[in-house]
Amino acid sequence: MTTYTSAALAALASSAAAEGAHLRLDCTLTTACSEASVCQPGDGPARYDIAPEAIDGEGAGSYRIATDASEPVPAQGLSRTGPFLWSTGSGTRAILTLTGEATALLVRQVTESGTGAPPSAEIDMMNCEVAY
């Protein structure tokens, strides 16, 4: 039964990807933490529209991600449910990971600030409504 279920899920994911189906996350930030483990309550909503461009049967490959009302940017994903990696500007990147049926983590990294400051990161924990 497990083999049949896995094969059926893979077929559904492949079919959805072939049709250009995308993943939409409507999230609420619950907690925001710094790289120093200083956390505070999250503030506000966040929306992610994730559209496949060139992916394999497992969903690994190229995607386009739009956050809130921004224009879509190129991203890489390891599967149809992430994690997804994209650049948010020069010297910055974001990694979005679904952690459960209704939860996600967003890691925002500054690798080169241009000011000489050391690399830094922030982690947002979110509750999300997921739609395909």
Summarize the SSE layout with pairings.
Elements: H1 2-18, E1 23-34, E2 39-41, E3 45-55, E4 61-67, E5 73-77, E6 84-89, E7 92-98, E8 103-110, E9 120-131
Antiparallel strand pairs: 1-2, 1-3, 1-9, 3-4, 4-5, 5-6, 6-7, 7-8, 8-9
Structural class, by secondary structure, is mainly beta
N-to-C CA distance? 25 Å
Query: Which sequence of SSEs, written as H and E, runs from N to C?
Result: HEEEEEEEEE
Global Rg = 16 Å
Tally of helical runs: 1
- Average pLDDT for all residues: 84
Weakly predicted, low-confidence segments: 1-19
The dominant shape is globular
How many runs of DSSP E, i.e. beta strands?
9
Proportion of residues in β-strands: over 45%
Largest sheet, in brief, is: 8 strands, antiparallel, barrel
Strand order of the largest sheet: 1-3-4-5-6-7-8-9
**Helix share bin:** 10-25%
Number of domains: 1
Question: In a nutshell, what does this entry contain?
Answer:
The chain has one helix at 2-18; strands at 23-34, 39-41, 45-55, 61-67, 73-77, 84-89, 92-98, 103-110, 120-131.
